[in-house]
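Incident log entry.

Two folding requests arrived from the same account within the same minute. Monitoring flagged them as a possible duplicate submission, but the sequences differ. Recording both here for audit purposes.

Request one:
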Amino acid sequence: MNTIKHIIAVASGKGGVGKSTTAVNLALALQALGGSVGLLDADIYGPSQQRMLGLPEGTKPEQKDGKWLLPVMAHGLKTMSMGFLASERTPMVWRGPMAGGALVQMLDQTLWGELDYLVIDMPPGTGDIQLTLSQKATVAGAVIVTTPQDIALLDARKGIEMFRKVDVPILGIIENMAVHICSQCGHAEHIFGRDGGERVSQDYSVPLLASLPLALLIREQTDSGTPTVIAAPDSAEAQLYLGAARAIQATLVDPSAGSDALVPTIRMTDD
């Protein structure tokens, strides 16, 4: 872990908002900008990165000296996932401490080598995995993924508050499924609401890193194992991911470049 410069948690308050798709594309965008990048799929109960990276079912990490895991290479990324350690059809019927132990094992026993960024695809919610990560690793910051829908925004706010309680800076918000543009007539429709990510970013004085459309190509490319940033690097969608990655880079190099410092930190007390 001492060879990793920046650990970035990609999180969401609820499932189904495109967090894993965002995590893999952000990791590939940081790599495209010249970084050495790892991707850890910490969604213990529902790992999906092995499929999104185009790795065949049954892919297993090699071991070294009987106690170290070697990351699986995919599209130039060093990756590790519970999906490599169990089959796609095997549910993780575990209590919280077991899931937290699995995260610690993947963090500590993977030989990551020298990395500029380790992107961690977090499970949805504000539970054991999030607390374990904040206790076991120095997290440079978190990216909160949401949709404009009011229900999703409620949970996004909880995610922001949770990370602040454990002193993890918020690097910014990425809004998914912001608008749908009809491929036949070009009509734009805000299916899940309008400007939700912008409202939350203003409320918490954190950057809105990107507002991504509800696009068929993003889904098709990720499902096929070639995420948008590498499948269509010149597309408008890929440029949005790259723009978000540039903003994250700038904040990590110079924390004053973000506006998170303007908001008071909330800490847990025994009161």
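Request two (distinct sequence, not a duplicate):
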Amino acid sequence: MENKTWERDFREYEIHSLFSFGGIDNEMFLLPANIKIDKFGNIYVLDFLDCSVKKFDRTGKYIQKYGKKGRGPGEFTNGFYFDVDKDGRIKLINPNDNKFAVFDKEKVYEYKTTLTPGRVCFVSNNEVVTFQFMDPFTFSPFQRINFLQKDIFQYQNVFDTETINDNEDLGMLPFLIGDIHYTVSNRLIYISSILGYVIIYSDEGMIENVFKLIDETTNPRVEINKSKKGSRNIINFPRREEYIFASTNIYKDDLFVFIMPTELQMKAEEFVVDIYSLSERRYKYSLLLKNIGMVSKIFISDKQIYITKENTEIEVFKYKLKDYNEN
């Protein structure tokens, strides 16, 4: 997939590094991945191989870690994805263990799932939404779970299941791969990594609005898998170049989409971030990030950029858009 940079409105900005921590010569991280922040500016980093989330203050000083490798309560065989709410509650999920854990200060709540969800986000103090694509025909990909009362609420399915041929076995649907976030206006947002749709759900769980990212998308590859029991259609997992983005985040009303870099962009160390307005459901502008090293994941607020680098370093930048009057 080629990023059509000529369609993008690149804005000029000022940027400077504030601080960094971790790195190849530091034992802080084994494999840092996603970054999130809370309302106090504390920084949370998922350490994939350490099966934990590590918390730092707004200056990068280490505070605490949540979770560890293992099979007991609050332990994981790998830390796949996480979320943090504005007050610092942490939710860590591992599809291989079929469970997630919520860390609320000294308390740990565990919940066993049945659909091996790969994404999660908080919606309230006691509720999270999980995202699964293992069986999206029988169950909605998005389920709101009250982990204290053990209640489950299913969001409207993105599929019209009545139109699916019962005899067509597609297996799990990897083209559903994407991210979910919850907004301050009580909206669940789903962004498809492959098909490029942004689906906005109401707080009642119904699809409220849909719009598309500006990049062109490719159709999922379907192959015939033959076995002794006959043949069936299987949708293959996408190749790296078929993913639209490497990571996304929401800050206030804006959706930030870190576009999956091409090999040329990685060699040049130039990375593209697209910004969309959720309330207006439209593309706004893009940032071209240069001279910041090899980037793995990005989290962006209105003033700061948090970057996970391939050398296991986290670097925080302060940025400001140059004056621009939108017509």
